[in-house]
From TrEMBL:
<protein>
    <submittedName>
        <fullName>Uncharacterized protein</fullName>
    </submittedName>
</protein>
Length: 289
């Protein structure tokens, strides 16, 4: 027995019927071969279709979503990054150059090395990779420990490698850190298909660094994951931290100016001293020899 249907009478401006039929045809809602306005109304009522202009994004929103896509890709969440890309293409009103760029990005598969690194880290399997540094030099590394870390605005691959020649002259007084590298993920060029032989290390090389936080930082300092000791002694807050990269530590300390002091080791303290001397020279400030 056929189900009883309700009828309604619509009063619409001239031309609206053609517009409704065009929408029904676009959504493939038909009665036989013809577009069905009745079917379109039912679909709208059941919320099975959406009509209207696609949402638009201003430059700030597009920039924010680009950063989100890059962050997701760097973190290895390739599927989520592709989902955001698809959302932009399907739902936003993009200008042609941006749409073409996103379509190209969507069509490019995730670099094979990115997936391989995640798998090898889980398996604790040493591997080889090729990296291009900021000067355009290609460097080959044998990796025996790796982890992905976030510094400031991006993710990096922190790793322990056998090769040390490229940094020995830069940090001759910090041999504990010679084997550590901090690589930008987007500058990794390739990985060898054959894993490296030998053992996987349990951690990065590190220095135990004593830091004194002063003034407002005694209370305001936020503990870090690598802090192994944290106590208030008199009017300073003494933190002992396992430091795996001198660049990021000095960058952090520089933000605090006189409210944070590297107490030891002397080698790392001297590195900061030399940077301060160079800075004084650049600004014509006399220093004692």
């Amino acid at each position: 027995m056929p189900r009883k249907k309700e009828t309604i009478t619509l009063s619409i401006p001239p031309g609206t019927k053609d517009q409704l039929e065009a929408i029904a045809r676009q959504l493939n809602i038909t009665w036989g071969k013809e577009p069905s306005i009745s079917g379109l109304i039912v679909a709208i009522a059941q919320q099975s279709v959406e009509v209207g202009k696609p949402f638009t994004l201003d430059s700030n929103q597009v920039n924010a979503l680009h950063k989100a896509i890059k962050a997701l890709s760097d973190a290895g969440q390739i599927g989520e990054a592709q989902t955001v890309l698809t959302l932009l293409l399907e739902r936003s009103n993009l200008e042609a150059p941006l749409r073409q760029s996103l379509m190209k990005q969507l069509s490019q598969p995730a670099p094979a090395w990115r997936i391989q690194i995640e798998e090898l880290i889980k398996k604790q399997q040493p591997f080889y990779l090729v990296y291009q540094n900021s000067q355009g030099d290609e460097l080959a590394y044998t990796v025996r420990y790796a982890e992905v870390r976030f510094f400031e605005r991006r993710f990096y691959l922190m790793m322990w490698c056998e090769e040390t020649q490229d940094v020995e002259n830069d940090i001759p007084d910090l041999p504990e850190l010679w084997h550590n590298r901090c690589l930008r993920l987007d500058r990794i060029e390739s990985m060898a298909t054959i894993p490296a032989s030998g053992n996987w290390r349990g951690e990065l090389g590190y220095l135990e660094v004593y830091l004194h936080f002063r003034q407002g930082l005694v209370k305001a300092y936020q503990p870090k994951e690598d802090d192994i000791k944290d106590e208030v002694i008199g009017d300073v807050r003494q933190v002992v931290r396992r430091v795996v990269n001198d660049f990021w530590l000095i960058r952090e300390v520089s933000r605090y100016w006189e409210d944070c002091v590297i107490v030891s080791p002397e080698s790392l303290r001297d590195r900061l001293k030399q940077k301060l001397v160079t800075l004084c020279q650049l600004y014509d400030i006399e220093t004692r020899s």
